[in-house]
Design brief:
275 residues, Rossmann fold, 13 helices
């Protein structure tokens, strides 16, 4: 885009900084970005980058076309209610990267009639390799959808879903997904050590293998299932391992875990969205 809407980040923690870093790396003008935190000392490095910073959230909201809510879900209501007048006056697009809080609650806390995009990012956004799911309420315009994409693609890919229920599934797949891969890496390192490798060798082999497999999956025209078949020779070593995993019910283990994750996302919406 050549048109750069003014952005205001309410909260300047890790996720906000990841998005800001991606935006700046992609050429977004620093002077078009506000960052807000109650502790001014935590804003000094962002000020040095050319951002506009403030400890006054209302000041930033009144200057913004897009407001990105990047505070902890547990304090969201307390942060938003003092912004109602400013939001109603300015009518910016609201983009929430907070887990669990429904758009209806955000809109209610902000006085109603607010364009809201909920986003479920994940931690690889910190290294510009994020995967985000987005869902818009019916007040979001086509232009605002583009603006939301512009913000979230700064740290990776951003894909639209059709409902907040689908966002619970996004949470189970990509929002919490990095932890699943870290657990697999952890298990492989431990197994490698039990098989006789040093911790350093087991770790380096595991991490490089994970990187290589992900790169192959991205670059290949074939789906992961076909790639797996191609490296699984009949009656070979890989087949023996795969059969062991399948016989242990690995697919159902993943299904059960991801269902539990999605269920918890639904529960959080009820808990965190209360008046």
């Amino acid at each position: 885009m050549t048109d750069y809407p003014t952005l205001a980040f309410i909260g300047a923690g890790n996720m906000a900084r990841a998005i800001i870093g991606g935006l700046l790396a992609n050429g977004y003008p620093a002077e078009q970005i506000w960052a807000c935190e109650p502790d001014a000392s935590r804003l000094e490095d962002l000020t040095a980058l050319g951002l506009k910073t403030s400890t006054n959230n209302n000041q930033a909201v009144l200057a913004a076309d897009v407001v990105i809510l990047a505070v902890k879900p547990q304090i969201m209501k307390a942060v938003l209610e003092p912004l109602t007048e400013s939001v109603q006056q300015k009518q910016p697009l609201i983009v929430s990267v907070a887990a669990g809080i429904p758009a209806e609650s955000l809109e209610r806390w902000l006085g109603g009639n607010v364009a809201i995009v909920r986003c479920m990012p994940n931690t690889p956004a910190l290294v510009q390799q994020g995967a985000s799911g987005l869902v818009a309420n019916n007040r979001v315009t086509d232009t605002q959808r583009v603006q939301a994409e512009q913000v979230m693609t700064a740290t990776g890919i951003a894909l639209w879903v059709n409902s907040e229920a689908e966002l619970d599934a996004v949470t189970a797949v990509s929002g919490s997904g990095p932890a699943y891969y870290f657990l697999v890496m952890e298990a492989m390192i431990e197994a490698g050590m039990k098989l006789g490798l040093s911790e350093e060798v087991a770790t380096q082999l595991t991490l490089q293998t994970a990187r290589g497999a992900a790169t192959m999956a991205f670059d290949s025209e074939h789906p992961p299932a076909e790639l797996r078949r191609r490296v699984t020779s009949p009656n070979g070593t890989t087949e023996r391992a795969i059969n062991s995993y399948e016989n242990a019910g690995l697919r159902q283990v993943f299904m059960d875990g991801m269902q539990a994750c999605s269920d918890r996302s639904v529960e959080m919406a009820t808990e965190l969205g209360k008046d």
